[in-house]
Amino acid sequence: MRKYVFSFLFIALSFVISLIALPYMPDQMAMHWNINGEADQFWNKSYAVFFGPLLMIVMLSLFVLLPKVDPKKENYKKFSGSYNIFVNMFIVFFFLLHIVTIGYNLGLDLDISLVVIIAVGLFFIILGNYMPRIKHNYFMGIRTPWTLANEKTWTKTHQLGGKMFVLAGVCMMLISFLPGLYKFIGLLIIIIFTLLISTISSYIYFNRYK
């Protein structure tokens, strides 16, 4: 578990921040925002303020469990460094979302949609750089019937997928400054295009290497 010390520290810090912020939170905390960045769902502060840290604990537990139950568990040893970086990066991502949520409910003037899309774009860029290192498995990466059926297809698809994710991340960061509706449409187009290219390429590679 020492490889996840970084994640544990951020989870512990998120709990400390929640405890400190709790007395200053409104009774009903904003927890969801529409495409225009306007809060449209509110939760009681007694559990809303701890939702982020608890979610991080659940996610980290899943990430620790997955390599133990995956039929391709031996392959995780081949990209353990990249996997650990991904896990820690994922926890940091949710930590940042938690901080932004706390800040918004403290009254800071934050454009939530701008912050979230920039964070997601940065997440895609980092993930794209590590994606070619991900070895054949059933839980992480571009999982289509064709990548799961053929390791060569998996490798070629993730080499292309890595570039696609980096490009998608850059595009997300660029559209984050657009008005709400255009930002939402742009995000959908980027995600759908990335998924389509990744899926179609895996089918093409499968037929080439089968």
Determine Rg (CA atoms, Å): 19 Å
Helix content: 55-70%
Termini separation comes to 39 Å
Number of strands: 2
Shape descriptor reads globular
Strand order of the largest sheet: 1-2
Strand content: 5-15%
- The chain-level structural class is mainly alpha
What's the helix-strand series? HEEHHHHHHH
Tally of DSSP helical segments: 8
Low-confidence stretches: none
Summarize the biggest pleated sheet: 2 strands, antiparallel
Number of domains: 2
Keywords: Membrane, Transmembrane, Transmembrane helix
Organism: Metabacillus halosaccharovorans
Domain DUF1648: 9-57
Transmembrane segments: 7-26, 46-66, 86-106, 112-130, 160-178, 184-206
Short description:
The chain has helices spanning 5-21, 45-48, 51-69, 80-105, 112-130, 145-149, 151-175, 180-209; strands spanning 28-33, 39-44.
3D architecture notes:
Helix 1 packs antiparallel against helix 3, helix 3 packs antiparallel against helix 4 and helix 4 packs antiparallel against helix 5. The chain has a two-stranded antiparallel sheet with strand order 1-2. It folds into two domains: 1-110, no CATH class; 111-210, no CATH class. 69% of the residues lie in helices and 6% in strands. The protein has eight helices and two strands, in the order H-E-E-H-H-H-H-H-H-H. It is mainly α.
